């Protein structure tokens, strides 16, 4: 239906007349085409992608392409080797989140320490940055020996830690002075990490 759309104030608009029992009128719908090749961008193919140097960026404007996200993050923190825009598995349309992989620990730490990034687009300009939390990681402290070989449910995003922990090791490490206020991150639906309260035994 793109051939029947019109540009209005730099927006692609589709007008449709609706005649139903309770609804009557002409409605305008903004159309935002998405090129599937804009979902991923490899900035430095010589660098292996390390999931432990990857961040989650929440609130990414849907028209923003992976190449644009990569360029912005590289300008701010350097060392970007990959950027991806998360898309709906069925619709293949952006979900409003992305991820960026860095080639070095210094750039990764600089990005997550910032916690927010300015991605100027229309009226929204502040985006959340968090570590990209994986769900198939063993505890970095005990390598699964204290939790029966189960994957670690917690990740500590504080730059003094940046590790995955089982419940036992989280309680042990984070009972130490200076670490008792760290909050564990867990992976939630849509790959978005979230903080969870930790109950001390």
Please characterize this protein's 3D structure.
The protein is an alpha+beta fold and 201 residues long. Helices cover 14% and strands 36% of the residues. The protein has 3 helices and 13 strands; from the N terminus they run βββββαββαββββαββ. It has helices at residues 66-77, 105-114, 167-173, and strands spanning 6-8, 11-19, 24-31, 40-42, 54-58, 80-87, 94-102, 116-121, 124-131, 154-156, 163-165, 184-187, 193-195. Strands 4-6-7-5-9-8 form a 6-stranded antiparallel beta sheet. β10 (154-156) and β11 form a beta hairpin. It is elongated. The termini are far apart. Belongs to the RRM CPEB family. It comes from Laticauda laticaudata (Blue-ringed sea krait). Residues 53-130 form the RRM domain. GO terms for molecular function: mRNA 3'-UTR binding; mRNA regulatory element binding translation repressor activity; ribosome binding; translation factor activity, RNA binding. InterPro entries: CEBP_ZZ (IPR032296), CEBP_ZZ_sf (IPR038446), CPEB (IPR034819), Nucleotide-bd_a/b_plait_sf (IPR012677), RBD_domain_sf (IPR035979), RRM_dom (IPR000504).
Could you outline the blueprint of secondary structure elements for this entry?
Elements: E1 6-8, E2 11-19, E3 24-31, E4 40-42, E5 54-58, H1 66-77, E6 80-87, E7 94-102, H2 105-114, E8 116-121, E9 124-131, E10 154-156, E11 163-165, H3 167-173, E12 184-187, E13 193-195
Antiparallel strand pairs: 1-2, 2-3, 4-6, 5-7, 5-9, 6-7, 8-9, 10-11, 10-12, 12-13
């Amino acid at each position: 239906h793109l051939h029947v759309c019109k540009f209005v104030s730099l927006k692609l608009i589709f007008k449709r007349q609706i005649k139903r029992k309770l609804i009557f009128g002409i409605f305008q719908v903004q159309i935002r085409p998405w090129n599937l090749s804009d979902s991923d961008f490899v900035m430095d193919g010589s660098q292996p992608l390390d999931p432990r140097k990857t961040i989650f960026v929440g609130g990414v404007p849907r028209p923003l392409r992976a190449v644009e996200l990569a360029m912005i993050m590289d300008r701010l923190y350097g060392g970007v080797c990959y950027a991806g825009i998360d898309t709906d598995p069925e619709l293949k349309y952006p979900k409003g989140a992305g991820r960026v992989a860095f080639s070095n620990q210094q750039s990764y730490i600089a990005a997550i320490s910032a916690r927010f990034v300015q991605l100027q687009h229309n009226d929204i300009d502040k985006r959340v940055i968090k570590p990209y939390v994986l769900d198939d990681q063993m505890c970095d402290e005990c390598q699964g020996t204290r939790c029966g070989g189960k994957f670690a449910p917690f990740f500590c995003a504080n730059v003094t830690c940046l590790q995955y922990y089982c419940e036992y090791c989280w309680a042990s490490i984070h009972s130490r002075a200076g670490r008792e206020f760290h909050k564990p991150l867990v992976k939630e639906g849509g790959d978005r990490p979230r903080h969870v309260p930790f109950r001390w035994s």
